[in-house]
Amino acid sequence: MGLVIIFGLVTLLAAIGAFTALKNKNLLGAFWGIASFAVFGWFTVMTVIHSGFPTGTH
User: Fold this and answer.
1) What is the DSSP string of 7-38?
2) What is the predicted pLDDT for the residue at 3?
3) What is d(CA 7, CA 22) in angstroms, rounded to the nearest whole number?
4) What pLDDT was estimated at residue 49?
5) In angstroms, what CA-CA distances link 50 with 11, 15, 28, 34, 47?
6) Tens of pLDDT along 3-57?
7) Chain centroid, CA 15 distance in Å
């Protein structure tokens, strides 16, 4: 279940990196940021669908 959290954090960081690269007109960095966002975002969605959202222990 921790995999969902890690994939989600990487997806958020890739989105931030892609936005920063676009703002700085760094096209290669923006390409890799958007590609990372797409791949890890897909992994996040598929992991949530397959394994479910992590719940806290009570």
Assistant:
1) HHHHHHHHHHHHHHHHHTT-HHHHHHHHHHHH
2) 84
3) 22
4) 87
5) 18, 23, 33, 24, 5
6) 888 999 999 999 999 999 999 999 999 999 999 999 999 999 998 888 777 666 6
7) 7
Angle between helices 2-23 and 27-51 (to 10 degrees): 160
Return the residue matching tokens 């007109």.
25
Distance CA 29, CA 18 (A): 7
The structure's pTM equals 0.81
Torsion (CA) 32, 36, 38, 44 in degrees, nearest 10: -170
Residues 30, 36: Cα–Cα separation, whole Å: 10
- The CA distance from 3 to 20, in Å, is 26
